[in-house]
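cron nightly-structures :: item 1 of 1
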Amino acid sequence: MKIAPQFPPLLKGHRVPQDKSPRARAIKQLNAGEIGAGDLLWSENQNKLNFALVLEPEVPRERCGEMLYMMMVAFGDALGAISAPEVAINYRWPSTILLNEGSIGSADLLVSKNETEGIPQWLLLNLEISILPEKDQIDPGLNSEMTTIWDEGCGDISRTQLLESVSRHIVNWIHTWSEEGFKQIHDQWMGRISEKTKLEDAVTDGEFVGMDERGNALVRTAEETSIIETLTALETVRAKSDGSA
């Protein structure tokens, strides 16, 4: 009998069969009014960390992107706490997570189109991380851009162990964000940005020069320095991943 992951008091876990998407199920249940803040839907797939978490922060849409970076920082802290110290955890704006400069997965953020006095009804955080190679996965030795936690020498880390650790760190970082704002998350995220490739190719051909106080990218081209909003960039990345862009 498999033991279900244990979550902090503020979160409630919901098991999702490994052949189903936690994000898709969460969206369906949100639209039906069946779940709300603190509900975390997690996949039974042992080869991946794949979960969707519902939050209802009382901030306007332009600040919701801060939660994406909060989750990425929480994941970095969680993996760092249970992995070997020589493992390098980095990020590529807006949503790629790297281990020793190879991608192990990505974060995503969906925000409700329905608002009350300018505040979205909910936002949905989604994290997908490769722990063990899948049977149909390209050998990381043949694709240096992609890897797994196992391939980077952390084979003793289980899905359940990582899920529990990430959930605890998310709760801690939400508390920090609610008490102190975004600055500490901003600084922690920037402290782990990849030195190899700072910006996802799907977003723009410009040069990433930093994040503003909301997590939006400052991007420089030959003509100008412009701002790319987090939610806009995520839509672009999602469209390319889905093959529609």
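cron nightly-structures :: done
The chain has six helices and twelve strands.
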